[in-house]
Records
---
Amino acid sequence: MQFSKFATAAFLAMVVGSAAVNNASAAQCGKTSAGFSDWIQEFKQEAAGQGVNARLLDQVFATVSYNTNTIRADRGQKSFKLSFDQFMKKRGGAVIISRGKAMKKNNASLFSRIESRYGVPAGPLIAIWGMETGFGGYMGNEHTLSAVATLAYDCRRTDYFTDQLYAALQLVGSKSLALNARGAAHGEIGQTQFLPRNVVRFGADGDGDGRIDLVHSRADALASTANFLRGHGWQTGAGYQPGEPNFGALQGWNAASVYQQAIAYIGAQIDGR
């Protein structure tokens, strides 16, 4: 799936952020699939009222269905409740460290360019890359638009995922996200699993080909991840262990403390710190 470097100005004017979301979230949420089709019609009306092209909405929602796998995954995130040692074992932390060191060596020039541009060293980027998709080995097989729409409809985190749905519409409208795109269960995209809003905000062209492809280009995926961390307060040259200045940026990546600790630990082992 390709991500264009810049969305068109016209479409950006059509899909705005939180103001649109606040109004769109008035569509009636639900806890089962029973009300999903009614919610779609309500959402389409409200989104059209915010200036989203009606034809685009018809095209998108013609592909969308309620995703029970997404709901199951959203309710079953038990690994974040594990101890650090249990989490590392479950996520294969030792393997990520071992493979990560080889990845750093074999892609030294890429990581050097990224650190020069964004100030983020290889270790935490490789830790995220390894934990999210096994270094791009498996990025998910759920229909992205259905996953995001399902969570926008679901009452648990309606406002948050309504914003993600608007971002996904923005990506489709700029021909940056295919209607049949597939990814992780919550609508995450690419080798480091960006939600649609983060693609819009932090997607970066790491290989210089004029496109942003978080699926097929490791350079784009890793540069975008570094850009995300910088956008969350990363300070060049500062430490990233708990209590150090850049740990806060890692906290921006995932709200689970055990995940944050794992990124810091794995990254330090790879960086030799």
Note: The chain has a mean pLDDT of 91.
---
Amino acid sequence: MGNYAFHFLTLFLLLFRPLSATSNVSELFEIWCTEHGKSYSSAEEKLYRLGVFADNYEFVTHHNNLDNSSYTLSLNSYADLTHHEFKVSRLGFSPALRNFRPVLPQEPSLPRDVPDSLDWRKKGAVTAVKDQGSCGACWSFSATGAMEGINQIMTGSLISLSEQELIDCDRSYNSGCGGGLMDYAYQFVISNHGIDTENDYPYQARDGSCRKDKLQRNVVTIDGYADIPSNDEGKLLQAVAAQPVSVGICGSERAFQLYSKGIFSGPCSTSLDHAVLIVGYGSENGVDYWIVKNSWGKSWGMDGYMHMQRNSGNSEGVCGINKLASYPTKTNPNPPPSPPPGPTKCSILTSCAAGETCCCAKKFLGLCLSWKCCGLSSAVCCKDGRHCCPFDYPICDTDRNLCLKQTMNGTRTEILENRSSSGSSGTWSSF
């Protein structure tokens, strides 16, 4: 009933707008859909999104007409989402976990003299902006960003690290797409003796099973981490002068959703619900700001970045940015590259090549009598004994010879078609 009530309200608002305004917003919406590649499942859904877009249009227009604002808003790629929808899908920081953080030893020494401005992007210590999608794993992006930064500073090599490994495998306290805290991500990497690369363990924007074959592919290590005292903006500045720093903020303000450019100054709550990365600082027209890297893609903000006011006079900082900050530490070198993986052992007498998966082709009384090799790593073996599916398309549809995966909302499947057939060499069809 709630959706239909909203659709009716949308129709009412559109019908009773001045005709020219309705026409202009509708035309603008069509242009926006084309620009952002948006399409909808039905005319009803499109009308609903038009109503949301029109409401966001009014909010953006009202803000941008203010005379004293230090930042502007825009109809970015999230302009067809209600503020509630956006908050549910794009946050994921769990500040309550900080109550369980271990007491850390004496924090590392920080530089006393800091430059007037600094941008770690210009020093090669920041990877490209990433997009968490509809997965509340901002904590993992903040953590990998900080580890990428300190690794580059210490080794000279900028390596994009795997958020998905943290989402799937760091489960002692963190909850994947359900939220987490950067400190526990650092602790996981320390305990695991390193973390894999983004390229080897790619992001899926959903919770998955821990790929244990990837856990020992430790390309980058850290030695520890440090927490900056809450509400100590001076110490935070010193830390950022040394390396990129993870912080919690309030990212649930409506203006945050539609931010475009300028120095964001609020109004903003200081109740933390989002995690980002500070990659530098500067000043403009006498106003000091932090350079904040977000994980909402390059279509948000200034190519994925925001300038957020610092030295605001509030000890907690704008959006609580001074309240909960931490960073990884590194003194030891990374491990040498792992040797190429050896054959995959199926049984005492049978094995598959490196990077392949053993699948049982014939069973008797629960014992496998015959093995075949799927030409994919960590694949899912189908029950028909003739096909396999990629780990990220784990549902076998043997009737149609397809591999499927469940979407985030669980209402539909996406299809990856069988592109090869079984050969005489005994290998299974691979996708």
Note: The first strand starts at residue 71 and ends at 73.
